[in-house]
Structures are given as C-alpha cells and as structure tokens.
C-alpha cells in the first residue's frame, strides 16, 4: 500500500503501552494464526489489542461492527481474529475514531466491502496527503475505497446488535476529527485517543489538536458516565470511571503547572528543564515523555 510511508523512530503509538488484564474484562490469548489479544467485555463486545489502537468488536445477529482497525501490516491478522470471533458473520461497519494510521491502517484492506463511518474531518484528512511533523511521518492520500463514506459533523447514532451507539465529535482535542462512541445499552465508552491509559497523551497539534481542549473534552465525557461504565482507551488496558477521573486530574493539574510557568515568563526550554511535580513522573513512562507533554501544553495555551 504505497500511501503508507516508512515509519520513523518513535512512530509506533502502542509499543510502549502493554495491555494488561483487568477486573472489568477477562483476557484470553489467541494462539497460532492471529497476533491479537482478546478481552471479553460482554456477550457481544470484545476488545482486540496488540500494536496500534484498541479495537472494539460488536458481534451478533446484525453481523460485525468494529471501532478502529490498527496498523496496515496487521490487516490480515485482524481479518483472522474477526473470523475466529464469528466466522458466519460479515463485517458491516468500521468506525474510525480519528485519522491516524494506527487506527485506520486496515481501511484499505477492509474498506472494499465495508462501510466506513467517521467525522467529516477524518475523511478530509485521509483524502489528502498528510503529515505528523513531530515524528517525520508523511503519507499520500488514501484510495477512495479506504475513505469513510458515512460522515457526520457533530453527532450520529448507529443501531446495531440490539444496542444504540452514540457517536459524538469532540473538536480540536487529540486531532480535529475525534469521535467518542457511547454504547447506550452495554454502558461502554470507546475513547479513541482521547485517552492513553495510564500515560501522557499525544496531542497532534499540527492536525488540530489542543491539550487544553483535550482536558475539557475528558471532563465532558467523565460527567456523562457512571461507576459501572467500562472505559476503553485508545491505548492501554481497559479501565473505568475512576481511571478516567485520574486521567482528568493529571491533565488539569499539569496544564495548571505549565500555565503558571508560561505566565511567569518562563520559556518552553526552561519549563521543560524545571519539569512537573514529581507525582506525575510515572505518567511519562509511556509513549509521550514529560518534556514532550510540557511542549504540547505550552503550544496549546
């Protein structure tokens, strides 16, 4: 697939995040012909995880729907994993939470026979040449069959497998095209990359992202869920409202710290040298380190 360029150092969003078992989902490991790990969320919902963003699979009488689809080089493994879940059902829908290649990589392979759904800006990004300067990443426009054909500006609903999926756009957060999906009946929310668990998030400033808006979006989502909600981050293990609350507190607190430094005339380089409160150090052990997170905040203020 020529539109995926060589991925340079640091480009893998998921290599630094290990998906672990949790009390919310019993994790099983598929052997042999698939690289994906499965975490059962409910009788009809399964999370697939490996390299790339976490994938949710809804399977049942209406067929199969997936949220995100990982890297291009794992497309065949994803097809195998879906067949293992339900070999009698066809893939009806793909929802892209945003345009990044570790969430849309299999659009090319799976989109030929499947309807892709996303926010309006995701189609715009995928239909054009794209870049993430921080990682020296560049890609050509996707072919027509790999683009979302159902798009929305603010919100939409998908009725599938006896549940109502509420898709909502949270503008200028991780990117300019982020979708969060709420499963009304199952009480599950897929955050896309509006959550990295538990680590500092990547903010794609070049493509409409903003750390301050990101924190506001997390606060809005958290206000809508309850203690029984299963929270699926874009990367990392399944969590719950408390996990999202901890993430929200980290975001708001670190933004407050950087804002104070900037208001006092401290330069970005000096702010990075000074660093954040030591209690946030563990959050910098994932994909995004503390200095990079400070730079995202500094640029967003």
For the sheet with most strands, the description reads:
8 strands, mixed
Helix content: 25-40%
The unreliable regions are: 1-33
Q: State the helix count.
A: 8
Q: What is the CA-atom radius of gyration, in angstroms?
A: 18 Å
- Total domain modules: 1
CATH H level, superfamily name: Ribonuclease Z/Hydroxyacylglutathione hydrolase-like
Strand content: 15-25%
Give, in order, the helices and strands.
Answer: EEEEEHEHHEHEEEEEEEHEHHH
Could you please say which CATH topology applies here? Metallo-beta-lactamase, Chain A
Query: Globular, elongated, flat, extended or rod-shaped: what is the shape?
Result: globular
Strand order of the largest sheet: 1-2-3-4-5-6-7-10
How would you classify the helix and strand content by structural class? alpha/beta
Say how many strands there are.
Answer: 15
Mean pLDDT: 90
Q: What is the level-2 CATH architecture name?
A: 4-Layer Sandwich
Ends: how far apart?
A: 38 Å
Using the coordinates above, name the CATH class: Alpha Beta
């Amino acid at each position: 697939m020529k539109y995926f360029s060589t991925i340079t150092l640091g480009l893998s969003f998921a290599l630094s995040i290990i998906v672990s078992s949790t009390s919310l989902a019993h994790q099983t490991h598929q052997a042999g012909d698939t690289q994906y790990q499965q975490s059962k969320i409910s009788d009809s919902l399964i999370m697939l995880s490996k390299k790339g963003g976490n994938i949710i699979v809804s399977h049942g009488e209406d067929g199969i729907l997936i949220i995100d689809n990982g890297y291009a080089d794992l497309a065949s493994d994803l097809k195998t994993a879906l067949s293992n879940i339900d070999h009698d059902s066809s893939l009806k829908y793909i929802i892209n939470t945003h345009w990044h290649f570790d969430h849309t990589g299999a659009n090319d392979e799976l989109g030929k026979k499947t309807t892709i759904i996303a926010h309006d800006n995701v189609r715009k990004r995928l239909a054009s040449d794209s870049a993430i300067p921080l990682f020296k990443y560049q890609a050509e426009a996707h072919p027509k069959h790999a683009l979302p054909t159902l798009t929305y500006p603010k919100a939409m609903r998908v009725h599938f497998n006896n549940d109502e999926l509420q898709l909502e756009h949270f503008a200028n957060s991780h990117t300019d095209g982020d979708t969060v999906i709420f499963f009304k009946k199952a009480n599950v929310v897929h955050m896309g990359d509006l959550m990295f668990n538990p680590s500092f998030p990547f903010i794609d400033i070049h493509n409409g992202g903003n750390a301050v808006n990101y924190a506001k979006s997390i606060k809005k989502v958290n206000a809508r869920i309850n203690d029984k909600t299963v929270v699926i981050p874009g990367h990392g293990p399944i969590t719950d409202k408390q996990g999202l609350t901890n993430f929200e507190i980290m975001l708001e607190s670190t933004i407050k710290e950087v804002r104070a430094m900037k208001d006092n005339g401290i330069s970005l380089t000096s702010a990075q040298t000074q660093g954040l409160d030591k209690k946030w150090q563990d959050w910098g052990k994932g994909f995004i380190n503390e200095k990079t997170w400070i730079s995202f905040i500094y640029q967003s203020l």
